[in-house]
């Protein structure tokens, strides 16, 4: 496989947080284009690739840093991976002080339709997305990866898997703590990716989306799933979230899980209009579904899971 990574570095810093069942905390609205997220690269700083199979050609920004091994840290934007499934446009975040001697948990998170890849004019559209940034603001150090894929079907699911495997191979990742997240179209993609390779992911946050993947493989591998959908989601409607929950629940039962054990790995949250209003959202509940990425209790629930050794 030929990998070519070409990118220009962008860094942004922002502020975030994560729930337990149908009552998460925190306030927020749909993701916003933050004025704080401004790219200001310096010129002429070329950094070597983190692997021998690819190359980063990028400049250091105000908040990115380099370790002794010359691996760039911070937010590294608008990269390209040429893989078996085609060209993958992505950005990623490495925590300050990243070291190959430490294994880091990793989140692979996919945005909705308006932040997908539609050509150069759309490059970096996901960089201000709360579903990307929130994981970078947690107290614990995480590697965070977000791609701008070209559809929400099998091709993109395969690309999400390939990107996950690329980071597992070329970065120091704790394989027991690899997490997935997806919003809207990104959720359709990641529900397929998680069901195709449930062995890769310890837990998955399925936000404001329909489930397009299979159910049995997820239960058989014990992958934890948190489903979030507004009661009045204008695009999908909440019934699709209930259906996904019920089908996953049945799959866990068939796999021999008890009620108590299922409750520990499967959660459904369908907040009503009052819940959203308390967070300043009174319309566009589908877009407002991005608020899940500001719910500390949700993020913490997802990140509490580890992949068990088989």
Automatic annotation (TrEMBL):
The keyword Signal applies. Residues 24-68 are annotated as: Disordered. Pfam families: Peptidase_S9. Residues 1-22 form the signal peptide. Residues 151-212 form the Peptidase S9 prolyl oligopeptidase catalytic domain. Residues 54-68 have a biased composition (Polar residues). GO terms for biological process: proteolysis. GO terms for molecular function: serine-type peptidase activity. This is Prolyl oligopeptidase family serine peptidase. It comes from Candidatus Copromonas faecavium (nom. illeg.).
């Amino acid at each position: 496989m030929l990998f070519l990574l070409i990118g220009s570095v962008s860094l942004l810093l922002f502020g975030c947080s994560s729930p337990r069942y149908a009552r998460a905390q925190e306030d927020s609205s749909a993701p916003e284009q933050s004025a704080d997220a401004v790219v200001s690269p310096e010129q002429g700083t070329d950094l070597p690739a983190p692997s021998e199979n690819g190359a980063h050609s990028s400049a250091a920004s105000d908040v990115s840093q380099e370790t002794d091994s010359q691996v760039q840290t911070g937010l590294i934007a608008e990269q390209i991976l040429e893989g078996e499934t085609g060209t993958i446009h992505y950005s990623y975040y490495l925590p300050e002080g990243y070291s190959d001697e430490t294994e880091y948990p990793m989140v692979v998170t996919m945005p909705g339709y308006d932040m997908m890849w539609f050509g150069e004019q759309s490059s970096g559209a996901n960089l201000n997305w709360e579903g990307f940034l929130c994981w970078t603001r947690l107290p614990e150090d995480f590697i965070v990866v977000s791609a701008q894929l070209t559809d929400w079907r099998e091709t993109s699911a395969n690309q999400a898997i390939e990107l996950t495997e690329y980071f597992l191979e070329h970065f120091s990742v704790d394989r027991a703590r690899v997490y997935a997240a997806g919003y809207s179209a990104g959720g359709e993609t990641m529900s397929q990716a998680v069901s195709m390779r449930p062995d890769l992911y310890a837990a998955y946050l399925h936000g404001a989306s329909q489930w397009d993947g299979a159910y049995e493989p997820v239960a058989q591998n014990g992958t934890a799933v948190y489903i979030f959908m507004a009661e009045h989601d204008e695009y999908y409607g909440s019934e699709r979230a209930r259906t996904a929950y019920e089908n996953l629940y049945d799959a866990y039962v068939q796999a021999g899980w008890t009620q108590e054990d299922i409750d520990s790995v499967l959660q459904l949250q369908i907040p009503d209009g009052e819940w959203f209003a308390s967070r300043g959202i009174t319309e566009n509940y589908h877009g407002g579904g991005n608020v899940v990425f500001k719910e500390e209790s949700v993020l913490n629930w997802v990140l509490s899971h580890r992949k068990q050794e088989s």
